[in-house]
Design brief:
globular; single chain; 243 residues; two-stranded antiparallel sheet; 10 helices
């Protein structure tokens, strides 16, 4: 797949994202043209497929459409999304069964991981698969050797080794899974252990909440040294960012 084809399927920067903008604005003709551009050359279900790229991104966008001419495209995107999600769930459960930590937050995060895939699955209405994602997120929160189950094995900088960290951002951290678990409750969709998982995440976040003149804030990440010190080295809130 060429770089140009790859770019077209990027929800943040490509034609599939532009199609969503046109759909929200009610410009069907422009949306259809962008969707046609996005799928030229095929749709990816490879290792990089996620809420922001490939079949899941396309499924997320097409779920906003009710045009009969897109019924087949919606079905194809939904099948591709399910394939990617099941494959990633199997790998994640194998990892948990072996009592290993996530290598990086890309396993579970909103941008590239199973939380984002869960968002796409929820949007297309595949309830059984959505419940499977929730069951994985419950397992993700279960403590392992005194640390949260979402504690990533890599360092604070994802490109450098370290002794692990807990990320608290919405895009890459545990607040993304928390939001999806909570949304499922509001939808009336629950699995065993879901409330306990929400409680575990909230208790962790409550513990690391800090106060400043501007109100409450949380460290972007917590490292093993900070856990042992029971205090963060971050002196105050950083830039407003969902990361």
């Amino acid at each position: 797949m060429t770089d140009r084809t790859t770019a077209r399927q990027n929800l943040a920067e490509g034609a599939v994202g532009i199609a969503l903008l046109h759909l929200e604005a009610g410009d069907w003709e422009a949306a259809y043209a962008s969707l046609d551009e996005a799928v030229t050359g095929g749709v990816s279900i490879g290792g990089g497929a996620s809420l922001y790229y490939g079949a899941p991104a396309l499924a997320f966008v097409l779920a906003a459409c009710d045009h009969p001419g897109l019924t087949r495209a919606q079905a194809v995107a939904a099948v591709g999304t399910a394939t990617v999600t099941r494959r990633r769930l199997q790998a994640a459960h194998r990892r948990i069964d072996q009592r290993q930590r996530p290598a990086t937050y890309a396993e579970f995060d909103l941008i590239r991981g199973l939380t984002g895939l869960g968002v796409a699955v929820r949007r297309i209405g595949d309830l059984p698969l959505f419940r499977d994602v929730l069951e994985y997120l419950v397992r993700l929160t279960e403590p392992l050797d005194g640390l949260p189950g979402w504690w990533c094995a890599n360092g604070r900088d994802r490109n450098r080794p370290g002794r692990g960290h807990s990320n608290h951002g919405m895009a890459h951290g545990i607040t993304g899974p928390l939001a999806l678990l909570a949304l499922a409750v509001s939808d009336g969709v629950q699995v065993d252990g879901q409330h306990a998982a929400i409680t575990r995440i909230c208790q962790w976040l409550d513990h690391w909440e800090r106060q400043s003149d501007g109100g409450a804030w949380w460290p972007e990440v917590i490292t093993l040294d900070e856990v042992r010190r029971d205090d963060t080295r971050q002196p105050g809130p950083q830039r407003p960012s969902w990361c």
